[in-house]
């Protein structure tokens, strides 16, 4: 099953996905962060990394074609019992449509929509110290999120698979909510 993690930059999707996947690896849970994959490509100096770097350092989105290609193989090779926590993808409507085309039938089981007040997002991002976490780039990333990615909330809500997760809580509480919601979706799909 594919579990999409939606929500603004800094809301904690990466932290939560990574913790959830490492504690349930034996149950086939996996974490795929497109941002982390891109940062690896940039560090390796690959072709893709060089192309992506200019967008990432400005806080812009990397073009859809490159992103869809990156994710497609991983999604196609998903085992029937695997749970893929998709963190940072899709971020545009065309990406969401490409994912729906490429994912095995019925495998997109859930979109977890993480929410937290804006003031918390900026504080968390400034505390991370990533190259694209300067005040100016953060402001731009939040704008890009609101204009381009936020509409996906409605897209998945209309499909009846969106569940909101209050991310302004302690990590164990958020992990507990995630486990419960994913567990319910797995029970429904089996
Ligand atoms: P993240 O680690 O998810 O915050 O992503 C860091 C940066 O990588 C973003 O600001 C984008 O420039 C790029 N990126 C990651 N995922 C995507 C995506 N699905 N579509 C376009 N750009 C992405």
Note down, in words, how this protein is organized.
The protein has one domain (2-189): Rossmann fold (3-Layer(aba) Sandwich), CATH 3.40.50.300. Helices cover 58% and strands 15% of the residues. The protein has helices at 13-23, 34-44, 47-58, 64-76, 93-102, 118-128, 135-149, 151-158, 171-189, and strands at residues 2-6, 29-33, 83-87, 108-115, 162-166. The protein has a five-stranded parallel sheet, sandwiched between helices. It is globular, with a radius of gyration of 16 Å. The relative contact order is 0.21. Adenosine monophosphate (AMP) is lined by residues 9, 34-35, 38, 55-56, 59-62, 67, 88-91, 95, 132, 141. Adenosine monophosphate (AMP) binds at residues 9, 34-35, 38, 55-56, 59-62, 67, 88-91, 95, 132, 141.
Q: Please outline the major beta sheet.
A: 5 strands, parallel
Output the CATH class name. Answer: Alpha Beta
Number of strands: 5
User: What is the strand arrangement across the widest sheet?
Assistant: 2-3-1-4-5
Which word captures the global form?
Answer: globular
Helix content: 55-70%
Give the ligands present. Answer: adenosine monophosphate
Treating each run of at least 4 consecutive H or I residues as one helix, how many helices?
Answer: 9
Mean pLDDT: 96
End-to-end Cα distance, whole Å, is 10 Å
N to C succession of SSEs: EHEHHHEHEHHHEH
CATH architecture, by name, is 3-Layer(aba) Sandwich
- The unreliable regions are none
Question: CATH H level: which superfamily?
Answer: P-loop containing nucleotide triphosphate hydrolases
Do you know the CATH topology? Rossmann fold
Report the sheet-strand fraction: 5-15%
Q: Which structural class best describes the helix and strand composition?
A: alpha/beta
């Amino acid at each position: 099953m594919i579990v999409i993690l939606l929500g603004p930059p800094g809301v904690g999707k990466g932290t939560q996905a990574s913790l959830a996947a490492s504690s349930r690896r034996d149950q086939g849970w996996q974490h795929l962060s497109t941002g982390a994959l891109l940062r690896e490509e940039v560090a390796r100096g690959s072709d893709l990394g060089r192309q992506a770097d200019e967008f990432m350092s400005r806080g812009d989105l990397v073009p859809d074609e490159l992103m869809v290609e990156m994710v497609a193989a991983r999604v196609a090779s998903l085992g029937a019992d695997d749970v893929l926590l998709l963190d940072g993808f899709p971020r545009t409507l065309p990406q969401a449509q490409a994912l729906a085309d490429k994912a095995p039938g019925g495998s997109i089981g859930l979109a977890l929509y993480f929410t937290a007040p804006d003031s918390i997002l900026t504080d968390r991002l400034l505390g991370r110290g990533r190259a694209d976490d300067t005040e100016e780039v953060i402001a731009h990333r939040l704008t890009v999120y609101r204009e381009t990615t936020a509409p996906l909330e409605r897209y998945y809500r209309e499909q009846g698979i969106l569940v909101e997760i209050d991310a302004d809580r302690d990590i164990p509480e958020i992990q507990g909510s995630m486990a419960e919601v994913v567990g319910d979706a797995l029970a429904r799909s089996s």
